[in-house]
Amino acid sequence: MDSFVIQAGDPETEFNLGSVFTLRGISIGAQNVAYDATTDEVQGTISFSAAFAELLPGNTTFTTTVTGLSGQYDFDSATQRGELVLSVDTLVVAFSDLLRIEGENISVTPDRAVIVEVGSLSATVPALNAGATVTGLRITSTGNFTVTSISVETEGLAETIGIGSFLPFDINTIQVVFPDADGDGRFSLDTFELGVTGSFNFDNFGSLPFTPIIQIGSDSFADNSNTFSFTLTVSDGAIAPKDLGPIQIGFSDLNIADTVIFGGTIILGGYQDGQWVPTFGGTISLQTGGKISNFSGEVNVAVIGSFDPENGILDISANLTVSFEFQDLITVTDAQLGLNLTISADGDFIFNVQRLELESASIGLIRFTIGNIVTLEATDAVLNFNPGPGQNIAEIGSLTVTLDGLGGISGSAQNFGISADVK
């Protein structure tokens, strides 16, 4: 018989080829196998194929996908055996979403220390939709992957990632970063990271009620022109900055109905080893401008609220007790004000202001002066800093009226309102 084929009875039965492959659905064939006792020589070829193959099973650093595995063993002689050589139609090695290496018609020599060696292979960075080229790939039987270089293609790259799922960052360049190199100039894929350089996309911030200034650590960014770099890693199956922060948003022009202007610094948090570390906090302060002036009291207070990095939602509140003048006509003493602001960002970093309001809980005293003629004073008053058309900025239940121009004659009035259109 010149040839024969043996197939595994159960296609799900697993066979281990040393520590290199786990195989299922094996088919083994022999062609022209013969033994010459006089010369002690074995001739012929034994070949096999597998319906399923997993390269270096049990490794937690990477996953592999193999299709079209076949191999053969050529006999030279009984004293000098031939070498087992395998061939795979396609080989895909994935290091999470950081790197995916793909090759075709790859030879594997499982009996050698180096089982795969390829000069150049195509690759991708799936998390950032970028192509790459891997040079000098070498795989050992112990599962060590090394390369001489990895270059990432960034021409035409238009990828945006979200810092905290909230701040859009446009990536311009990507670099594979290896912490250490072997003595022969090779780099191990057991430990590597992605370094990215880019800038915040301030064009997306146009719908915010203020002009943001982003601060990362000690660096501030106010427009698209300022770039910076950081490292990405994979944490809990998702790509994220490795170590970045603290991340803050500052502003000085949060305008409430052209009446009150606020500034502030909001601390969102930061990243450590790819994990988000919540350190929410910050301050809110009254700013000069708008229709109020000469303010005093708690003009700078700590914010309360939260930042949700999973859903990209910022919720802040601040409570102030202040005194101020309104357009040199109204004097307000000990007004308790509450600022509430909620902003969300969707997957495309389109911002939505879900809530923006300034509430007045109570007022110690409000005084309204008309020249040197009339003075109105009240403690029973509520301010409306978000008036609609025709609405009043102040509603007063009862007040005292003093006619200064008539010798200080006084009286009272009820249900008094001050229009938001006072000039």
Structural account:
The protein is mainly beta. The protein is built from no helices and 33 strands. Strands 1, 2, 3, 4, 5, 6, 7, 8, 9, 10, 11, 12 and 15 form a 13-stranded antiparallel sheet that branches. A hairpin with a 2-residue loop joins strand 19 (228-235) and strand 20. The mean pLDDT is 85.
Keywords, please?
423 residues; eight-stranded antiparallel sheet; mainly beta; rod-shaped
| Strand segment tally | 33
Calculate the mean pLDDT score and round it. Answer: 85
* Estimated radius of gyration: 36 Å
The portion of residues forming beta strands comes to over 45%
Helix coverage percent of residues?
Answer: under 10%
Helix count from the secondary structure assignment: 0
Shape: rod-shaped
Which residues sit in consecutive blocks of at least 5 with pLDDT less than 50? none
Query: What structural class do the secondary elements suggest?
Result: mainly beta
User: How many angstroms does the end-to-end distance come to?
Assistant: 109 Å
What characterizes the major β-sheet?
13 strands, antiparallel
Provide a short characterization of the protein structure.
The chain has about 425 residues and is mainly beta. The protein has strands at about 5, 15, 20-35, 40-55, 65, 70-75, 85-95, 100-110, 115-125, 130-140, 145, 150, 160-165, 165-175, 185-190, 195-200, 215, 220, 230-235, 240, 245-255, 260-270, 275, 280-285, 290-295, 300, 305-310, 315-325, 330-345, 350-370, 375-385, 390-405, 410-420.
